[in-house]
Amino acid sequence: MQEARDILKKYWGHHTFRPLQEEIIEAAYKGDDIIALLPTGGGKSICFQIPSLLKEGICIIVSPLVALIEDQVKTLHQKGIKALAITGGISYSELDTLLDNCIYGNYKFLYLSPERLQQDLVQQRIKQMPVNLIAIDEAHCISQWGHDFRPAYLNVSVLRELHPETPVMALTASATKEVVEDIRKQLLLTSPKVYKKTLLRENIAFQVLRTEDKIYRLRTILNNKEESSIIYVRSRNATQEIAQELTHYGYTAKAFHGGLSSSEKSLRLNSWLQEKTKIMVATNAFGMGIDKANVRHVIHLNLPESIESYFQEAGRAGRDEKPATATIITNNSDIPHLKSQFLNNLPDLEFVLLVYKKLTSYFQIAFGEGLDTTHDFNFSEFCNRYQLNYLKAYNTLQLLDRISVLKLSQQFEKSAKLQFIISNKALFYYLEENPKFDPIVKSILRTYGGIFENKVAINLAAICSKAGTIEKEAIEVLQQLKKDGIAEFEHQQNDASITFLVPREDESSIYPYSKYIKSQSQNKKDKITALLNYVENDKICRSRQLLSYFGEKVTTNCGICSVCLTPEKKVKKETIKRIYEAIIKALEMQEKNSRELVASLPYPENGILKVLQLLLDKDIIVLNPNKTFKIKNT
């Protein structure tokens, strides 16, 4: 382990390891299989990087996060360590060369996605590599009980078959007991050593705030415009709307979502990382694999779909160990909306069978036929023809992929993208000159927000339905807009492909999976129930509730959450001291009233008001006639 500490000092500049890192590194060096549960920001990458550097050979890391892969490879290169990433957009010949480099080029790390691992060429070359360690990042993705299950992860166990003697390390930030056991089974781990660091985040005040005016409440939390924050919302349109509203109030805020181009995502992310943009308003994909220590607030304006996803997102606050808040802002309309979005679109056995039959009819596959046949697939046209709910049909296709009845390519959401590249006013002048384009263009404007700022994925079938036209005519109009310099338009005629993995047998193809389909539906319902219980339970410390969900028994209240600081709760001495110091520091800079203090400090209102009263009683501060507080002159 002295050599491990030397490597830590040489490449990372640290003299000591964080809790559990040293034990995990030593076990990996000895050749043990490992399941490591370390909280977000807990230094998971060092756990597999250092033991691999201690040995001859290469470490293979499977990760679903392209941003994280690219960041880690870039960091390793800066340290002078040879590492490769195999992600998307690589030609076969380039892939062939890169894999050869891993075998013969003395590389230490090969990062790849679970989808890339399924390629025969990749598997063949990995078998020839001198692999000293296999690391599976975000390992909860392999479990059907996890919050972010990815079917491609089920094939990761092929690495164990290719290198049966090589130790495997599975890493995740949070997992229930069921998920940990599922990870062990799916990865074929042999008596793995399980290392679990407490998920307790003592510096984060977990809050659930109820209000009908979410924007006002949001602004009270974000009163200090210089603090770095993340705001999570459900839709792409909402990211644009909230970012624009915050900008109107003088904040530096940007929207971040999947519809942005790669270059625009990179620009906005770097602006946030470099403190030029203070607030990122994003959908829930943002933040994975991004290491920013000084995030003071993580705020959810919509209810998350599970405690797992919420805890992971909330954990992006306060990685510098300084006080931070993780807040859910909710009201009475959120619960039916959550149920409508996630529960009403869960496919039952009857709906799965219906979609499967419609698919085989759509492709004219006869009974007993179809095995290993691949078909171009227009998802929008399919749903439109059979009048299927888009989200429910999408969930069904994913489920059929998961149970290996078929294989679905994942590009269909990108079948058509559009952005108007002239001003709104100029567009309406253009429509006056070209009135035949008016129905389609105005249908798009009514349906999609932010289409002047970003390239947006559009649903052609839905637009045609609103405009009273057919898809062919809509495409011709949009192509003319592109030709006239009015818009940027990308279109793929067939936006997906489907490969049937079993012959068509209708009920016999689906019924063997009926138990699984029901259990998946129940699992989703249980997760939403657990999340709603957390939101509605204002009796038990919020930190204790979260830890209990992940199997940690904690008897001490955190003292800083929205439950602990309700009037009837006793505030811990350490918390009083923190609030005391924060108030004094704020008043040394400027006199403030109670509302301004509540808005600017990362503590619940009741705790701040209690400490203000204490300071008044002890004659440390005084209340001015204009209702502002100031430190008393001595």
Summarize the structure in words.
The protein is an alpha/beta fold and 634 residues long. The chain folds into five domains: 2-196, P-loop containing nucleotide triphosphate hydrolases (Rossmann fold, 3-Layer(aba) Sandwich), CATH 3.40.50; 204-331, Rossmann fold, CATH 3.40.50.300; 341-412 and 496-505, Arc Repressor Mutant, subunit A (Orthogonal Bundle); 416-491; 573-631, Arc Repressor Mutant, subunit A. It is built from 26 helices and 22 strands. The chain has a seven-stranded parallel beta sheet with strand order 3-4-2-5-6-1-7, sandwiched between helices. It has a six-stranded parallel beta sheet with strand order 8-13-12-9-11-10, sandwiched between helices. The protein has a three-stranded antiparallel beta sheet with strand order 14-19-15.
Task: Give the structure's gist in a few sentences.
The chain is built from 26 helices and 22 strands. The strands form 5 sheets. A 7-stranded parallel β-sheet has the order 3-4-2-5-6-1-7, with helices on both faces. Helix 1 (2-12) packs across helix 3 (44-54) and helix 14 crosses helix 16 (390-402).
> Which assembly state applies to the chains in this document?
single chain
* Strand count: 22
C-alpha end-to-end distance: 56 Å
Strand content: 15-25%
Mean pLDDT: 87
Sheet with the most strands, sense and barrel status = 7 strands, parallel
